[in-house]
């Protein structure tokens, strides 16, 4: 790993679709700046800086009001870069942390005061060296009293082996990118049906209907994604979140235009009511419940 990579669009378009007032980009990250917040020695990719000023400029350009910043794997379990971005946001950002299972209670409290409201468990082998389910469960039990939820990132090929683990989590669960289904199978394909069965098993499993650029091999305009995902939003309108995924880690070979990502929101949430739930009501309930 030598060259630092750029995985985001240099000049994203201003979207034609206007998000409703108060819209939240509920899945995005910051990278560095490295001079202040070095990357983890275990990082699997080494990005250029994509710090809070860039993120907030994008938020405004896209017509959003707030961000949920998810600690990216390249920063390991040192949440300083994410906390720094939250602190600079004037209350317009909250976060999801990644923690060492040995973290102390007082460190967890500090993360809470810094704006963290969830913890992420990442099961992607290309991103992390290990994903110890027993230790993750212990973390989930410990963050429960803080009112946090757990964000779980896994791919469709391990969905079956995730069931018992998910069942044992005591908090609300948010699954990243719908567990990465093969959207070309369509809305009733094997992957989507298996994913729906998770949602049907527990009312407190939510998901992010995100990343057409990652999930649709046909590419822009991501029609397979829209076709597979719109019925999910319609059937589970109170349990879905949306985000840009900026700065699109590992997407340097197929960088999406963030404006185009926003333009496709009506393809998965066609009514004003669905859009309000997806972009405003649901993320506020999870990340700003006191507002
Ligand atoms: C995402 C997806 C990816 C990366 C990360 O933390 C990360 O590095 O989440 C990925 O490469 O699939 O949600 O940003």
Give the topology.
Layout: E1 24-28, H1 52-62, E2 66-70, H2 80-87, E3 93-97, H3 105-113, E4 116-122, H4 133-143, E5 149-153, H5 159-168, E6 173-175, H6 190-201, E7 205-208, H7 212-215, H8 223-235, E8 240-241, H9 258-263, H10 265-268, H11 272-287
Parallel strand pairs: 1-2, 2-3, 3-4, 4-5, 5-6, 6-7, 7-8
The structure holds (1E,3Z)-4-hydroxybuta-1,3-diene-1,2,4-tricarboxylic acid.
(1E,3Z)-4-hydroxybuta-1,3-diene-1,2,4-tricarboxylic acid binds next to loops.
How would a crystallographer describe the biggest sheet? 8 strands, parallel
The portion of residues forming beta strands comes to 5-15%
Q: Which structural class is indicated by helix and strand composition?
A: alpha/beta
How far do the termini sit from each other?
43 Å
Low-confidence stretches: none
Specify the number of helices.
11
Overall strand count: 8
Q: From the alpha-carbon coordinates, what is the Rg to the nearest angstrom?
A: 17 Å
Order of helices and strands: EHEHEHEHEHEHEHHEHHH
Fourth-tier CATH superfamily name: Metal-dependent hydrolases
Level-1 CATH class name: Alpha Beta
Name the helicity range.
25-40%
Compute the average pLDDT. Answer: 97
- Which molecules are bound besides the chains? (1E,3Z)-4-hydroxybuta-1,3-diene-1,2,4-tricarboxylic acid
Any idea how many domains?
1
């Amino acid at each position: 790993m030598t060259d630092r990579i750029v995985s985001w669009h240099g000049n994203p378009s201003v979207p034609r679709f206007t998000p409703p007032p108060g819209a939240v980009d509920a899945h995005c990250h910051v990278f560095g700046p490295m001079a202040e917040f070095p990357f983890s020695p275990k990082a699997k990719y080494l990005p250029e800086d994509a710090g809070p000023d860039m993120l907030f400029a994008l938020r405004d350009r896209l017509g959003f009001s707030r961000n949920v910043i998810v600690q990216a794997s390249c920063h390991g379990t040192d949440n300083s870069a994410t906390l720094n971005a939250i602190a600079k946001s004037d209350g317009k950002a909250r976060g999801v942390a990644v923690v060492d299972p040995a973290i102390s209670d007082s460190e967890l409290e500090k993360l809470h005061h810094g704006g963290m409201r969830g913890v992420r468990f990442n099961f992607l082998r290309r991103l992390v060296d290990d994903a110890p389910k027993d230790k993750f469960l212990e973390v989930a039990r410990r963050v429960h009293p803080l009112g946090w939820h757990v964000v779980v990132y896994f791919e469709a090929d391990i969905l079956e082996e995730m069931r018992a683990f998910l069942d044992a989590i005591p908090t609300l669960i948010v699954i990243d990118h719908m567990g990465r289904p093969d959207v070309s199978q369509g809305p009733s394909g094997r992957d989507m049906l298996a994913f729906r069965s998770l949602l049907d098993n527990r009312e407190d499993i939510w998901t992010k209907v995100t990343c057409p650029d990652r999930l649709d091999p046909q590419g822009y305009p991501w029609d397979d994604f829209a076709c597979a995902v719109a019925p999910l939003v319609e059937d589970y309108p109170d349990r879905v979140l949306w985000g840009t995924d900026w700065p699109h880690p590992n997407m340097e070979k197929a960088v999406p235009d963030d404006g185009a990502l926003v333009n496709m929101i009506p393809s998965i949430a066609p009514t004003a009511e669905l859009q309000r739930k997806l972009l405003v009501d649901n993320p506020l309930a999870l990340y700003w419940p006191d507002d």
